[in-house]
Specification:
Elements (H helix, E strand, L loop, with lengths): L1 H5 L5 E6 L5 E7 L2 E5 L4 E3 L2 H10 L9 E5 L5 H9 L5 E5 L3 H10 L8 E4 L3 H7 L4 E6 L14 H10 E13 L7 H10 L3 E9 L3 E8 L1
Parallel strand pairs: 5-6, 5-8, 6-7, 8-9
Antiparallel strand pairs: 1-2, 2-3, 3-4, 9-11, 10-11
Helix pairs in contact: 2-3, 6-7
Length: about 220
Protein backbone atom coordinates (compact mmCIF):
# COMPACT_ATOMS: atom_id res chain seq x y z
CA UNK A 1 0.00 0.00 0.00
CA UNK A 2 2.87 2.40 0.79
CA UNK A 3 4.37 1.90 -2.70
CA UNK A 4 0.98 2.62 -4.25
CA UNK A 5 0.64 5.87 -2.30
CA UNK A 6 4.21 6.96 -3.01
CA UNK A 7 3.72 6.23 -6.73
CA UNK A 8 1.58 9.36 -7.03
CA UNK A 9 4.70 11.34 -6.09
CA UNK A 10 7.44 9.21 -7.65
CA UNK A 11 7.35 5.88 -9.57
CA UNK A 12 8.26 2.88 -7.37
CA UNK A 13 10.16 0.22 -9.35
CA UNK A 14 11.24 -3.34 -8.56
CA UNK A 15 13.63 -5.04 -11.00
CA UNK A 16 13.35 -8.80 -11.58
CA UNK A 17 15.87 -10.90 -13.52
CA UNK A 18 14.00 -13.42 -15.71
CA UNK A 19 14.98 -16.55 -17.62
CA UNK A 20 14.26 -15.39 -21.19
CA UNK A 21 13.24 -11.73 -21.02
CA UNK A 22 16.22 -10.14 -19.33
CA UNK A 23 15.52 -7.72 -16.50
CA UNK A 24 11.86 -6.75 -16.20
CA UNK A 25 10.57 -3.86 -14.13
CA UNK A 26 7.41 -3.89 -12.01
CA UNK A 27 6.54 -0.25 -11.44
CA UNK A 28 3.89 1.50 -9.39
CA UNK A 29 3.03 4.76 -11.17
CA UNK A 30 0.08 7.02 -10.33
CA UNK A 31 -1.52 4.25 -8.28
CA UNK A 32 -1.28 1.60 -11.01
CA UNK A 33 1.18 -1.23 -11.48
CA UNK A 34 2.79 -1.91 -14.88
CA UNK A 35 5.33 -4.40 -16.24
CA UNK A 36 8.06 -3.19 -18.60
CA UNK A 37 11.11 -4.56 -20.36
CA UNK A 38 14.12 -2.36 -21.12
CA UNK A 39 12.48 -0.81 -24.18
CA UNK A 40 8.80 -1.78 -24.16
CA UNK A 41 5.68 -2.06 -22.06
CA UNK A 42 4.89 -5.73 -21.36
CA UNK A 43 1.61 -5.39 -19.51
CA UNK A 44 -0.96 -2.97 -18.03
CA UNK A 45 0.04 0.02 -20.12
CA UNK A 46 0.17 0.69 -23.84
CA UNK A 47 0.26 -3.03 -24.69
CA UNK A 48 -3.03 -3.68 -22.92
CA UNK A 49 -4.70 -0.86 -24.86
CA UNK A 50 -3.28 -2.19 -28.14
CA UNK A 51 -4.66 -5.69 -27.64
CA UNK A 52 -7.99 -4.37 -26.35
CA UNK A 53 -8.30 -2.49 -29.65
CA UNK A 54 -8.02 -5.80 -31.50
CA UNK A 55 -10.33 -7.65 -29.12
CA UNK A 56 -13.00 -4.96 -29.52
CA UNK A 57 -13.30 -5.98 -33.18
CA UNK A 58 -13.85 -9.68 -32.37
CA UNK A 59 -17.08 -11.37 -31.26
CA UNK A 60 -15.77 -12.53 -27.88
CA UNK A 61 -19.22 -13.49 -26.57
CA UNK A 62 -19.38 -16.38 -29.05
CA UNK A 63 -15.92 -17.66 -28.11
CA UNK A 64 -15.82 -20.61 -25.73
CA UNK A 65 -12.14 -21.58 -25.96
CA UNK A 66 -9.20 -19.19 -26.16
CA UNK A 67 -5.46 -19.85 -26.50
CA UNK A 68 -3.10 -17.06 -25.43
CA UNK A 69 0.50 -17.39 -26.59
CA UNK A 70 2.59 -15.11 -24.38
CA UNK A 71 1.48 -14.17 -20.87
CA UNK A 72 3.54 -11.18 -19.79
CA UNK A 73 2.02 -9.80 -16.61
CA UNK A 74 -1.37 -11.18 -17.59
CA UNK A 75 -3.04 -7.90 -18.55
CA UNK A 76 -4.87 -9.48 -21.47
CA UNK A 77 -6.32 -12.08 -19.09
CA UNK A 78 -7.69 -9.26 -16.96
CA UNK A 79 -9.08 -7.61 -20.10
CA UNK A 80 -10.80 -10.79 -21.28
CA UNK A 81 -12.32 -11.47 -17.88
CA UNK A 82 -13.18 -7.98 -16.67
CA UNK A 83 -13.78 -5.91 -19.80
CA UNK A 84 -15.04 -8.50 -22.29
CA UNK A 85 -16.80 -10.77 -19.75
CA UNK A 86 -15.17 -13.95 -21.06
CA UNK A 87 -15.99 -16.99 -18.93
CA UNK A 88 -14.90 -19.87 -21.15
CA UNK A 89 -11.73 -21.94 -21.07
CA UNK A 90 -8.46 -20.03 -21.37
CA UNK A 91 -5.19 -21.85 -22.10
CA UNK A 92 -2.07 -19.70 -21.64
CA UNK A 93 1.47 -20.44 -22.83
CA UNK A 94 4.53 -18.79 -21.31
CA UNK A 95 8.10 -20.01 -21.71
CA UNK A 96 9.51 -17.93 -18.84
CA UNK A 97 8.69 -19.40 -15.42
CA UNK A 98 9.66 -16.17 -13.67
CA UNK A 99 7.21 -14.22 -15.82
CA UNK A 100 4.47 -16.61 -14.71
CA UNK A 101 5.45 -15.92 -11.10
CA UNK A 102 5.30 -12.17 -11.74
CA UNK A 103 1.81 -12.48 -13.23
CA UNK A 104 0.58 -14.52 -10.27
CA UNK A 105 2.30 -12.70 -7.44
CA UNK A 106 2.38 -9.09 -8.65
CA UNK A 107 -0.79 -8.94 -10.75
CA UNK A 108 -3.17 -11.35 -8.97
CA UNK A 109 -3.60 -13.76 -11.88
CA UNK A 110 -4.21 -16.68 -9.53
CA UNK A 111 -7.69 -15.55 -8.50
CA UNK A 112 -9.22 -16.18 -11.95
CA UNK A 113 -11.06 -19.44 -12.71
CA UNK A 114 -10.91 -21.57 -15.88
CA UNK A 115 -7.29 -20.68 -16.68
CA UNK A 116 -4.68 -23.29 -17.57
CA UNK A 117 -1.13 -21.91 -17.59
CA UNK A 118 1.53 -23.98 -19.35
CA UNK A 119 5.21 -23.26 -18.78
CA UNK A 120 6.57 -24.33 -22.17
CA UNK A 121 7.73 -23.15 -25.57
CA UNK A 122 4.88 -21.98 -27.80
CA UNK A 123 6.35 -23.75 -30.85
CA UNK A 124 6.49 -27.07 -29.03
CA UNK A 125 2.93 -26.62 -27.80
CA UNK A 126 1.30 -25.78 -31.13
CA UNK A 127 3.21 -28.53 -32.93
CA UNK A 128 1.82 -31.18 -30.57
CA UNK A 129 -1.55 -29.64 -29.68
CA UNK A 130 -4.65 -31.68 -30.50
CA UNK A 131 -7.17 -29.03 -29.38
CA UNK A 132 -8.92 -26.43 -31.51
CA UNK A 133 -9.86 -22.93 -30.36
CA UNK A 134 -12.37 -20.20 -31.14
CA UNK A 135 -9.73 -17.51 -30.62
CA UNK A 136 -5.93 -17.62 -30.63
CA UNK A 137 -4.10 -14.52 -29.39
CA UNK A 138 -0.42 -14.34 -30.35
CA UNK A 139 1.58 -11.88 -28.25
CA UNK A 140 5.09 -13.31 -28.31
CA UNK A 141 7.80 -10.75 -27.69
CA UNK A 142 11.32 -10.60 -26.36
CA UNK A 143 11.60 -6.90 -25.54
CA UNK A 144 10.44 -5.21 -28.80
CA UNK A 145 10.91 -8.15 -31.16
CA UNK A 146 8.76 -11.11 -32.14
CA UNK A 147 11.13 -14.12 -32.39
CA UNK A 148 11.61 -15.19 -36.02
CA UNK A 149 10.19 -18.75 -35.65
CA UNK A 150 6.77 -17.19 -34.95
CA UNK A 151 6.83 -15.16 -38.18
CA UNK A 152 7.01 -18.04 -40.65
CA UNK A 153 4.42 -19.54 -42.99
CA UNK A 154 4.95 -22.87 -41.22
CA UNK A 155 3.87 -21.43 -37.87
CA UNK A 156 0.99 -19.53 -39.49
CA UNK A 157 -0.20 -22.71 -41.19
CA UNK A 158 -0.16 -24.56 -37.88
CA UNK A 159 -2.26 -21.85 -36.25
CA UNK A 160 -4.74 -21.89 -39.13
CA UNK A 161 -5.42 -25.58 -38.49
CA UNK A 162 -6.03 -24.98 -34.77
CA UNK A 163 -8.84 -22.47 -35.32
CA UNK A 164 -12.45 -23.58 -35.33
CA UNK A 165 -14.75 -22.47 -38.18
CA UNK A 166 -15.72 -18.80 -37.61
CA UNK A 167 -12.84 -18.58 -35.14
CA UNK A 168 -10.19 -15.85 -35.15
CA UNK A 169 -6.44 -15.35 -34.88
CA UNK A 170 -5.42 -12.04 -33.26
CA UNK A 171 -1.71 -11.49 -33.89
CA UNK A 172 0.37 -8.68 -32.38
CA UNK A 173 3.00 -8.48 -35.11
CA UNK A 174 5.31 -5.80 -33.82
CA UNK A 175 6.29 -2.18 -33.48
CA UNK A 176 6.80 0.42 -36.26
CA UNK A 177 6.94 -2.15 -39.04
CA UNK A 178 8.08 -1.68 -42.60
CA UNK A 179 6.23 -3.48 -45.41
CA UNK A 180 9.35 -5.59 -46.03
CA UNK A 181 9.67 -6.76 -42.43
CA UNK A 182 9.25 -10.44 -41.58
CA UNK A 183 5.89 -9.98 -39.80
CA UNK A 184 4.33 -9.23 -43.19
CA UNK A 185 5.03 -12.86 -44.12
CA UNK A 186 2.30 -13.76 -41.63
CA UNK A 187 -0.10 -11.22 -43.13
CA UNK A 188 0.61 -12.43 -46.66
CA UNK A 189 0.09 -16.06 -45.63
CA UNK A 190 -3.38 -15.47 -44.18
CA UNK A 191 -4.39 -13.17 -47.05
CA UNK A 192 -3.65 -16.00 -49.49
CA UNK A 193 -5.93 -18.42 -47.63
CA UNK A 194 -9.39 -18.39 -49.22
CA UNK A 195 -10.96 -19.67 -45.99
CA UNK A 196 -9.78 -16.63 -43.99
CA UNK A 197 -10.87 -13.00 -44.00
CA UNK A 198 -8.11 -10.62 -42.89
CA UNK A 199 -8.06 -7.19 -41.29
CA UNK A 200 -4.76 -5.41 -40.67
CA UNK A 201 -4.67 -2.60 -38.10
CA UNK A 202 -1.53 -0.49 -38.48
CA UNK A 203 -0.04 2.03 -36.07
CA UNK A 204 -2.39 1.06 -33.23
CA UNK A 205 -1.72 3.67 -30.50
CA UNK A 206 0.86 4.99 -32.98
CA UNK A 207 3.15 1.94 -32.85
CA UNK A 208 1.87 -1.61 -33.34
CA UNK A 209 0.50 -3.68 -36.21
CA UNK A 210 -2.29 -6.16 -35.46
CA UNK A 211 -3.60 -8.90 -37.73
CA UNK A 212 -7.15 -10.17 -37.29
CA UNK A 213 -7.70 -13.31 -39.38
CA UNK A 214 -11.17 -14.87 -39.18
CA UNK A 215 -11.87 -18.35 -40.46
CA UNK A 216 -14.96 -18.73 -42.65
Amino acid sequence: MMKKLLSFIWPQTTKIDTDFNGVLEVTWINGRKVLDSKNANYSYGTLQRILETGLSKIDIKNSHSILLLGLGGGSIVHSLKNKFDYNGTLDVLEIDEKVISIAKNEFNLSHFDNINIFNCDALDFVNTCTSNYDLIIVDLFIDQEVPTPFLTETFSNTLSKMINPKGTVLYNLGINLDKQDKPYHVINYFKKQTHFTCTVLEQVTGTNTLLIAQKK
